[in-house]
Amino acid sequence: MLAPLNPEWTSILKNEMEQPYFKDLSAFVEEQYKKHQCFPPKERIFAALNNCSFDDIKVVIIGQDPYHKPHLANGLCFSVNSGMPIPASLQNIYKEIQEDLGVQTPSHGNLIQWAKQGVLLLNATLTVQVHKAGSHQKKGWEQFTDAIINIISTKKEGVVFMLWGGYAKKKGAKVASEKHLILQSGHPSPLSANRGLWFGNKHFSQCNTYLKTRKKSKIDWV
Question: Does 24 qualify as catalytic in the annotation?
Fold first, then answer.
Protein backbone atom coordinates (compact mmCIF):
# COMPACT_ATOMS: atom_id res chain seq x y z
CA MET A 1 0.00 0.00 0.00
CA LEU A 2 1.33 3.41 -0.98
CA ALA A 3 -0.13 5.17 2.05
CA PRO A 4 -2.98 4.72 4.52
CA LEU A 5 -6.40 4.68 2.86
CA ASN A 6 -9.51 4.44 4.99
CA PRO A 7 -11.54 1.20 4.93
CA GLU A 8 -14.54 2.74 3.16
CA TRP A 9 -12.52 3.88 0.12
CA THR A 10 -10.37 0.75 0.21
CA SER A 11 -13.53 -1.31 -0.21
CA ILE A 12 -14.92 0.92 -2.96
CA LEU A 13 -11.66 0.94 -4.91
CA LYS A 14 -10.60 -2.64 -4.20
CA ASN A 15 -11.05 -3.87 -7.78
CA GLU A 16 -9.23 -0.86 -9.20
CA MET A 17 -6.29 -1.26 -6.83
CA GLU A 18 -5.91 -4.89 -7.85
CA GLN A 19 -5.40 -3.97 -11.52
CA PRO A 20 -1.90 -4.47 -13.00
CA TYR A 21 -1.55 -0.76 -13.82
CA PHE A 22 -2.12 0.19 -10.18
CA LYS A 23 0.47 -2.28 -8.98
CA ASP A 24 2.95 -0.77 -11.45
CA LEU A 25 1.98 2.71 -10.28
CA SER A 26 2.48 1.73 -6.64
CA ALA A 27 5.94 0.38 -7.38
CA PHE A 28 6.85 3.54 -9.30
CA VAL A 29 5.69 5.85 -6.51
CA GLU A 30 7.41 3.80 -3.80
CA GLU A 31 10.68 4.03 -5.74
CA GLN A 32 10.27 7.76 -6.34
CA TYR A 33 9.71 8.49 -2.64
CA LYS A 34 12.83 6.48 -1.79
CA LYS A 35 15.05 8.19 -4.37
CA HIS A 36 13.70 11.75 -4.42
CA GLN A 37 11.86 14.31 -2.37
CA CYS A 38 8.22 14.01 -3.44
CA PHE A 39 4.95 15.66 -2.47
CA PRO A 40 2.60 15.53 -0.75
CA PRO A 41 4.15 13.76 2.27
CA LYS A 42 3.66 10.04 1.74
CA GLU A 43 1.05 9.71 4.49
CA ARG A 44 -1.08 12.37 2.74
CA ILE A 45 -1.13 10.90 -0.77
CA PHE A 46 -4.77 9.87 -0.26
CA ALA A 47 -5.75 12.87 1.89
CA ALA A 48 -8.52 13.89 -0.52
CA LEU A 49 -10.22 10.53 -0.01
CA ASN A 50 -9.42 10.12 3.67
CA ASN A 51 -10.91 13.50 4.56
CA CYS A 52 -14.08 13.13 2.50
CA SER A 53 -16.30 10.11 3.01
CA PHE A 54 -17.88 8.64 -0.13
CA ASP A 55 -21.31 8.82 1.48
CA ASP A 56 -20.80 12.50 2.32
CA ILE A 57 -19.63 13.70 -1.11
CA LYS A 58 -21.64 16.71 -2.27
CA VAL A 59 -19.09 18.46 -4.48
CA VAL A 60 -16.13 17.35 -6.61
CA ILE A 61 -13.41 19.84 -7.54
CA ILE A 62 -10.77 18.53 -9.94
CA GLY A 63 -7.20 19.77 -9.95
CA GLN A 64 -4.27 18.54 -12.01
CA ASP A 65 -1.00 18.12 -10.10
CA PRO A 66 0.15 18.62 -6.49
CA TYR A 67 2.27 21.69 -5.79
CA HIS A 68 5.88 20.75 -6.49
CA LYS A 69 7.59 23.33 -4.24
CA PRO A 70 8.45 22.31 -0.66
CA HIS A 71 5.96 22.60 2.21
CA LEU A 72 2.91 23.44 0.07
CA ALA A 73 1.10 20.27 -1.04
CA ASN A 74 -1.17 18.63 1.55
CA GLY A 75 -3.03 16.14 -0.64
CA LEU A 76 -6.04 18.35 -1.39
CA CYS A 77 -6.20 20.12 -4.75
CA PHE A 78 -5.69 23.91 -4.64
CA SER A 79 -5.02 23.63 -0.89
CA VAL A 80 -1.79 24.42 0.96
CA ASN A 81 -0.66 23.91 4.53
CA SER A 82 -1.65 26.58 7.02
CA GLY A 83 1.04 29.22 7.40
CA MET A 84 2.16 28.99 3.77
CA PRO A 85 1.53 31.80 1.24
CA ILE A 86 -1.79 31.40 -0.57
CA PRO A 87 -1.10 30.45 -4.23
CA ALA A 88 -2.40 32.72 -6.97
CA SER A 89 -5.10 30.31 -8.17
CA LEU A 90 -6.50 29.93 -4.66
CA GLN A 91 -6.39 33.69 -4.17
CA ASN A 92 -8.62 33.99 -7.24
CA ILE A 93 -10.93 31.28 -5.92
CA TYR A 94 -11.24 33.24 -2.68
CA LYS A 95 -11.92 36.48 -4.59
CA GLU A 96 -14.74 34.81 -6.50
CA ILE A 97 -16.23 33.39 -3.29
CA GLN A 98 -16.10 36.86 -1.72
CA GLU A 99 -17.79 38.48 -4.72
CA ASP A 100 -20.31 35.68 -5.17
CA LEU A 101 -21.37 35.20 -1.56
CA GLY A 102 -20.41 38.51 0.05
CA VAL A 103 -18.31 36.81 2.72
CA GLN A 104 -14.83 37.34 4.11
CA THR A 105 -12.50 34.54 3.04
CA PRO A 106 -9.84 32.89 5.21
CA SER A 107 -6.33 34.25 5.75
CA HIS A 108 -4.88 30.77 5.13
CA GLY A 109 -5.00 28.32 2.23
CA ASN A 110 -5.81 25.05 4.00
CA LEU A 111 -9.08 23.73 2.55
CA ILE A 112 -9.50 20.85 5.01
CA GLN A 113 -12.83 22.30 6.22
CA TRP A 114 -14.23 22.05 2.71
CA ALA A 115 -13.24 18.38 2.57
CA LYS A 116 -14.86 17.70 5.94
CA GLN A 117 -18.14 19.10 4.58
CA GLY A 118 -18.20 16.77 1.58
CA VAL A 119 -16.04 18.55 -1.00
CA LEU A 120 -13.75 16.03 -2.71
CA LEU A 121 -10.63 18.02 -3.64
CA LEU A 122 -9.18 15.58 -6.15
CA ASN A 123 -6.02 16.09 -8.14
CA ALA A 124 -5.76 14.03 -11.33
CA THR A 125 -2.21 13.06 -10.35
CA LEU A 126 -1.70 12.46 -6.65
CA THR A 127 2.10 12.76 -6.39
CA VAL A 128 4.96 14.80 -7.85
CA GLN A 129 8.75 15.10 -7.54
CA VAL A 130 10.13 18.29 -6.02
CA HIS A 131 10.57 21.14 -8.54
CA LYS A 132 9.44 18.91 -11.42
CA ALA A 133 5.86 19.75 -12.36
CA GLY A 134 4.06 16.87 -14.04
CA SER A 135 6.84 14.40 -13.21
CA HIS A 136 4.40 11.68 -12.07
CA GLN A 137 1.87 12.17 -14.85
CA LYS A 138 1.04 9.31 -17.22
CA LYS A 139 2.16 6.68 -14.72
CA GLY A 140 -1.34 5.48 -13.82
CA TRP A 141 -2.71 8.13 -11.48
CA GLU A 142 -4.98 9.56 -14.17
CA GLN A 143 -6.58 6.16 -14.75
CA PHE A 144 -7.09 5.75 -11.01
CA THR A 145 -8.68 9.17 -10.54
CA ASP A 146 -10.83 8.67 -13.65
CA ALA A 147 -12.15 5.54 -11.95
CA ILE A 148 -12.97 7.51 -8.80
CA ILE A 149 -14.89 10.11 -10.82
CA ASN A 150 -16.75 7.38 -12.70
CA ILE A 151 -17.74 5.60 -9.48
CA ILE A 152 -19.08 8.85 -8.02
CA SER A 153 -20.96 9.64 -11.23
CA THR A 154 -22.45 6.13 -11.43
CA LYS A 155 -23.25 5.36 -7.80
CA LYS A 156 -24.30 8.75 -6.47
CA GLU A 157 -26.88 11.39 -7.44
CA GLY A 158 -27.04 15.13 -7.02
CA VAL A 159 -23.30 15.81 -6.81
CA VAL A 160 -21.94 19.18 -7.97
CA PHE A 161 -18.92 18.80 -10.27
CA MET A 162 -16.85 21.99 -10.59
CA LEU A 163 -14.75 21.73 -13.74
CA TRP A 164 -12.31 24.61 -14.01
CA GLY A 165 -10.20 24.87 -17.15
CA GLY A 166 -9.80 22.61 -20.14
CA TYR A 167 -8.07 19.78 -18.32
CA ALA A 168 -10.79 19.43 -15.68
CA LYS A 169 -13.55 19.72 -18.29
CA LYS A 170 -12.01 16.88 -20.27
CA LYS A 171 -11.58 14.76 -17.15
CA GLY A 172 -15.21 15.30 -16.16
CA ALA A 173 -16.62 14.88 -19.66
CA LYS A 174 -18.24 11.52 -18.92
CA VAL A 175 -20.03 12.56 -15.73
CA ALA A 176 -23.76 11.81 -16.00
CA SER A 177 -25.17 15.32 -16.48
CA GLU A 178 -28.75 14.06 -16.17
CA LYS A 179 -28.32 13.31 -12.47
CA HIS A 180 -25.53 15.68 -11.38
CA LEU A 181 -24.91 19.43 -11.67
CA ILE A 182 -21.88 20.24 -13.83
CA LEU A 183 -20.45 23.75 -13.46
CA GLN A 184 -17.76 24.76 -15.94
CA SER A 185 -15.56 27.84 -16.30
CA GLY A 186 -12.04 28.88 -17.05
CA HIS A 187 -9.28 27.99 -14.61
CA PRO A 188 -8.71 30.31 -11.63
CA SER A 189 -5.02 30.72 -12.52
CA PRO A 190 -4.04 34.35 -13.24
CA LEU A 191 -3.54 33.60 -16.95
CA SER A 192 -7.13 32.43 -17.36
CA ALA A 193 -8.73 34.70 -14.75
CA ASN A 194 -7.20 37.83 -16.21
CA ARG A 195 -8.69 36.93 -19.60
CA GLY A 196 -12.17 37.04 -18.11
CA LEU A 197 -12.66 33.28 -17.99
CA TRP A 198 -12.95 32.85 -14.22
CA PHE A 199 -14.43 35.77 -12.32
CA GLY A 200 -18.20 36.03 -12.22
CA ASN A 201 -18.88 32.30 -12.68
CA LYS A 202 -20.88 32.26 -9.40
CA HIS A 203 -20.19 28.56 -8.96
CA PHE A 204 -20.33 28.72 -5.18
CA SER A 205 -23.80 30.24 -4.92
CA GLN A 206 -25.06 27.98 -7.73
CA CYS A 207 -23.69 24.99 -5.85
CA ASN A 208 -25.43 25.89 -2.61
CA THR A 209 -28.71 26.66 -4.36
CA TYR A 210 -28.61 23.25 -6.05
CA LEU A 211 -27.77 21.45 -2.80
CA LYS A 212 -30.75 23.16 -1.17
CA THR A 213 -33.06 21.88 -3.92
CA ARG A 214 -31.72 18.38 -3.20
CA LYS A 215 -32.43 18.88 0.53
CA LYS A 216 -28.73 18.79 1.35
CA SER A 217 -26.93 21.20 3.64
CA LYS A 218 -24.99 23.94 1.87
CA ILE A 219 -21.20 24.22 1.89
CA ASP A 220 -19.69 26.85 4.14
CA TRP A 221 -17.02 28.16 1.77
CA VAL A 222 -15.20 30.28 4.40
Answer: no
